[in-house]
Amino acid sequence: MPHRSLSTPLQVTLASIGNPDHAQPPGRSLPGVPSETVEILDLAAASRACRAYIERHQLGAGNWAGDIVTRAGVPIARVSYNGRVWRPGSWKPGDQPLYDPQ
């Protein structure tokens, strides 16, 4: 397995998706809302980038789809609509956030 430097930057994907509750196609991004991948320094920055994207594009929770934080292409965390950062994968009862902006 190749050695990965701890200085490898983190990236977070920012994206929207249609919400069928509002008659929006669920398999596509919202019109006029471009997907982005941005480099970040840490999980707090991932949280801020996600919340800024959500606010900038006025997304509801059902429209938030860009939540994966990666290092060298490997998922290391995910960001929920409220800005909390979690381990990758599905939430399970008892999970604690890796970062909480509260």
Backbone structural class: alpha+beta
Query: What's the overall geometry?
Result: globular
Proportion of β residues? 15-25%
Mean pLDDT: 88
**What does the radius of gyration come to?**
14 Å
Number of domains: 1
Q: How many alpha or pi helices? A: 1
Q: Helix fraction?
A: 10-25%
Low-confidence segments, given as residue ranges, are 1-5
List the helices and strands and how they pair.
Elements lengths: L9 E5 L21 E5 L2 H14 L11 E4 L2 E6 L5 E2 L16
Antiparallel strand pairs: 1-2, 1-3, 3-4, 4-5
Walk me through this protein's architecture.
With 102 residues, the chain is α+β, with helices and mostly antiparallel strands. It has one domain (10-86). 14% of the residues lie in helices and 22% in strands. It has 1 helix and 5 strands; from the N terminus they run E-E-H-E-E-E. It has one helix at residues 43-56; strands at 10-14, 36-40, 68-71, 74-79, 85-86. The chain has a 5-stranded antiparallel beta sheet with strand order 2-1-3-4-5, covered by helices on one side. Strand 4 and strand 5 form a beta hairpin. The longest helix has 14 residues, at 43-56.
List keywords for this structure.
single chain; 102 residues; alpha+beta; five-stranded antiparallel beta sheet; 1 helix; 5 strands; 14% helix; globular
Task: Describe, in short, the structure shown.
The chain contains one helix and five strands, in the order ββαβββ. Strand 3 and strand 4 form a beta hairpin. The chain is globular, with a radius of gyration of 14 Å.
